[in-house]
Structure formats: structure tokens, C-alpha cells
Design goal:
- The protein is α/β, with parallel strands linked by helices.
- It folds into four domains: 41 residues, Arc Repressor Mutant, subunit A, CATH 1.10.10; 50 residues; 203 residues, Nucleotidyltransferase, domain 5 (2-Layer Sandwich), CATH 3.30.420.10; 34 residues.
- Helices cover 50% and strands 7% of the residues.
- It has a five-stranded mixed sheet with strand order 3-2-1-4-5, with helices on both faces.
- Keywords: RNA-binding.
């Protein structure tokens, strides 16, 4: 009994750290609010009579500075995602205070960023980790960059997202492996029939088994989970990169027909794009969902695991292969004749493929330019590359 109570108190502490309120935690564990308050005080998380949900009290000037910093980073974020960006920093302010700060710092944004609710079909998943959705985003495909993401269907937690200069199956698998390093292996994954997904299929079938739908192929009417993230990502991040790259095309000599130009673009900017994606992942996982009583994806993942049981969460008996050679081959019959080959990015080869010394020289030349503007970085990169490959 003592062990059980100790485990309960620890779980309550974790719930408190997720910034859930007393009523939410009590409902989650099926106990009274008084019991929750006692457990929190016993854990020395707070003093008696303090509010359970921790709100950050900031002077208007400090809150305005933080909001301006976030909006300077990504100018198109709306109120909910700005709140998510603050919570990703451990700052949770009342909604009214955040709204007033945005109005003070960006008074013209109110009508531009008004909410326009979209009607969506009802969507039900058994619990966290029951089903992940996987998809590719091709907004930057003409510049040789593809983005892949995995999102939990129940909680909307974005488990993994990454931009890459190729669309190979090994790259998609590496995104998935990065996701399951942070979150448990899901019970099932849903994706399309693209060839780039075959190694994820092999991994899921090796870990979760054949003949049970470990990887569900085909388009899904329920893929709205990741499509909504793509919509917000394009608005908040990808459109800015599209604008930069098109400006380089129009004004500064970028020619996407030249493979070395596409390679250089990725060499110069891919790391920055992935930093933006990591930032967006943090913001997304901490933004409040209107349809889920203003809980965040992180809160839903944790509380749903308590209420419904996470599929495969904390399953220490799972054997996760380190490679697809250990996993074996995917069941190619599941793809049938509908397997699709997306845009081939394999042709973007480095002009320094047989000249490692030239690549090192380029890296040295660009050391002083990594924090320069996109235009200055590009112009210096082109000059250096052309000189080194002559």
C-alpha cells in the first residue's frame, strides 16, 4: 500500500509539473481535490492555500519584451501559438494578459489573425501512442528540401519533425528513430504508400508484429492531425523560407536548375531550417487546444496515458532494432501496385564529392558568415564555392 501511495504522490507531482489544475488532477485520479492538495503539499511542491496551477506574474514591460521577441522570430504566430512559445520557456501567463500584450506590441494584428474555425469530422483514438500519423511536407521541394513529421493522433503531440536534402527511406527512418528516442514506440503508424516509408514499415512490423496493422497504408480521412500542423508550420515558418529563397532566385543569381546551387542552398540553410522546426515543435506541443478544454498536447499525452493507458508506453520488453537489416524487409505486398515514388532528390550531389579538401576550405570560409543575413551568406557562399571548384 505504501508503494502504491508513493507512486500516486509522484504521479501527482508530475501532473502538477504539467501545470494541470487541482480539479483536472483530481478528476484524472478519481479522488477529491483535498487529497490532491495534500499530496502536492506533502511533496513540497507548494505551500498550503497556494494555487495549484502556477501562473507567471510578469510586469507588462517584461511580458511585452518576451512577446516581441517571439513575434520577431516568427511574425505570423497567433495568440494561441504565442502562448505555446511562452509555455515552452516555462512561462504561463493568463490569457487576458497575453492578449493585452499582443495588442500593445502588435496593434494591427488583431483582425489579420482573427480565428476562422474550420469544420472537421469527429476523430477518435483509443489513447496516447495508439496511432501516430506520418506525412511529408513539400513546400520547399523545388529547392531540394523535404520535411517529414510524426504526430500522435490522440494528443496531437508532435513526436518528430525534420527537414532533409533527400527523400530516401533511410532518412525517413532516422526521423522516426529520433521520435521514438523521445517518445515510446507507437502501437501503429499511419502513412501513405510512398517508397520512402518502407523502412519505417519494416521497423514497425519488427517491433509490433505482422498481420495486426502495425503500419496502416493509404490516404486517411483522419490525417487532419498532421495536416493542421503543416498548415500552421507553413504560415509561421515555411513561407518565410520560401520568400528568402525566391528572393535569392529573383535578385541574387540562385538557379535551381544547377545542382551545385541547390546543394549550396542546403549547405548554408538546412541547419537553420531545422532549428526553426525544433522551435515550432516545442511551441506546438505547448499550445492550448480549444477543442480539448484548453489542454496542451503535452498535457493530453501525459493525462491520457494515466486515464486510458498508453499503447506501448514504458514497455521495457520491446526489442527495438537498431537498423532495418535487423528488422528485416517490409511486407511489400501491403503496398500492392499503388506504391508511389515522390520527387527524387537523390540527384543533388555535392560539387565536393571527390574533393574533401575543398569542402573543408568552404566550411572555413563560411565560419565568419553563419550569422550574416541570408543574402550575404548566399553571395559569399557562391563566390567561395565557384573559386574552390575551378
Amino acid at each position: 500500500m505504501l508503494v502504491g501511495f508513493s507512486s500516486f504522490v509522484t504521479s501527482v507531482r508530475t501532473a502538477h509539473e504539467q501545470n494541470l489544475g487541482t480539479t483536472q488532477i483530481a478528476k484524472l485520479f478519481g479522488v477529491s481535490r483535498r487529497t490532491i492538495r495534500k499530496a502536492i503539499v506533502d511533496q513540497q511542491v507548494r505551500q498550503p492555500f497556494e494555487r495549484t496551477r502556477v501562473r507567471t506574474l510578469l510586469p507588462d514591460a517584461e511580458l511585452d519584451r518576451l512577446v516581441m521577441e517571439i513575434l520577431d522570430h516568427e511574425t505570423s504566430l497567433g495568440e494561441i501559438l504565442v502562448g505555446g512559445a511562452l509555455r515552452a520557456r516555462g512561462i504561463d501567463v493568463p490569457r487576458e494578459a497575453l492578449r493585452a500584450s499582443i495588442q500593445r506590441t502588435r496593434p494591427l494584428r488583431r483582425h489579420v489573425h482573427a480565428n476562422h474555425p474550420v469544420m472537421r469530422r469527429r476523430y477518435n483514438v483509443a489513447g496516447p501512442n495508439a496511432l501516430w500519423h506520418h506525412d511529408g511536407q513539400h513546400a520547399l521541394i523545388s529547392f531540394g528540401i523535404v520535411i517529414h513529421g510524426f504526430i500522435d493522433g490522440y494528443s496531437r503531440v508532435l513526436a518528430g519533425v525534420r527537414a532533409s536534402s533527400n527523400n530516401r527511406a533511410s532518412m525517413v527512418l532516422s526521423v522516426f528513430q529520433g521520435a521514438i528516442a523521445l517518445y515510446p514506440v507507437p502501437s501503429r503508424v499511419r502513412g501513405d504508400r510512398g517508397e520512402e516509408n518502407v523502412q519505417v514499415v519494416a521497423m514497425m512490423e519488427a517491433v509490433r508484429g505482422l498481420g495486426r496493422g502495425s503500419y496502416l497504408c493509404g490516404t486517411s480521412p483522419h490525417n487532419q492531425r498532421i495536416e493542421r500542423f503543416w498548415r500552421d508550420l507553413k504560415k509561421s515558418v515555411l513561407n518565410a523560407w520560401l520568400h528568402r529563397f525566391r528572393h535569392l532566385e529573383d535578385e541574387h543569381g540562385l538557379n535551381i536548375e544547377l545542382s551545385r546551387h541547390v546543394w549550396l542552398l542546403e549547405f548554408l540553410f538546412l541547419d537553420d531550417i531545422n532549428k526553426d522546426l525544433a522551435w515550432c515543435q516545442d511551441v506546438w506541443n505547448n499550445h492550448k487546444l480549444r477543442t480539448e478544454q484548453r489542454s496542451t498536447p503535452n498535457q493530453l499525452f501525459w493525462s491520457g496515458s494515466i486515464q486510458n493507458g498508453g499503447r506501448g508506453i514504458y514497455d521495457e520488453n520491446l526489442h527495438i532494432p537498431e537498423s532495418t537489416e535487423q528488422a528485416g524487409n517490409a511486407n511489400n505486398n501491403m503496398f500492392g501496385e499503388e506504391v508511389r515514388s515522390h520527387v527524387d532528390l537523390h540527384s543533388q550531389r555535392s560539387p565536393f564529392l571527390n574533393n574533401p579538401e575543398g569542402l573543408e576550405a568552404l566550411q572555413r570560409r563560411m565560419t565568419e558568415r553563419w550569422h550574416a543575413s541570408a543574402v550575404d551568406r548566399w553571395l559569399e557562399g557562391v563566390r567561395a564555392m565557384e573559386q574552390l571548384i575551378e
